[in-house]
Design a protein that fits this description.
CATH class: Mainly Alpha
Distance between the termini: 81 Å
Order of helices and strands: HHEHEEHHH
Helix content: 25-40%
Strand content: 5-15%
Number of strands: 3
CATH architecture: Orthogonal Bundle
Shape: globular
CATH superfamily: Winged helix-like DNA-binding domain superfamily/Winged helix DNA-binding domain
Structural class: mainly alpha
Largest sheet: 3 strands, antiparallel
Number of helices: 6
Amino acid sequence: MPAVRDIAPEDLPPPLPEPRIEALRLEAIMGALADPLRLTIVRKLLLESEEYDHTCGWFGFDRPKSSLTHHFKALREAGLIRQRQYGLERRSRVRVDDLNRRFPGLLTLIKDWTPGSDSKATPVRPRPAAVRITDHASRRKSRAPK
C-alpha cells in the first residue's frame, strides 16, 4: 500500500479555504469524525487513495450529492481534508502531514478503526424520545361521575 502524503504537482488549483495548521482544533476534528460516514471517508482516503485528489463519486456512496457535499465541507472546515476545485467538481485529500504534525497518532487510530458489522457508514440518528401512549377512552371512563 503506497504511503499517502501531501505532495502535489505544481499545476494544481489552489486549495479551498481551510484552517491553518496552528488553528487545527482537536474538538473540531473529533466532532467531524463523530459521524460514521465522515470517519469512513477519511479512512478510505487514507487506506485506498492512490492519486492526489478524489471526487465524491470515487467513494461509491449511495447518497444524494447535496448530502455528500455537506459532509466533505464539514471535514474540510475541521481541517481533516484539503479540497481543490477542478471545474465543476471538488476533489479531496487527507491533510496527512499537517495532522501528523499537530496530532501524532490520530491518523493511525483512524486507519486501525474497523466499522461494526451493522455499520453502513450512515450517520447514527438519536432514537426519538419515548412517547407516552394514553388510551383516551379509558381516561374518559375513569373521569366520568359514578
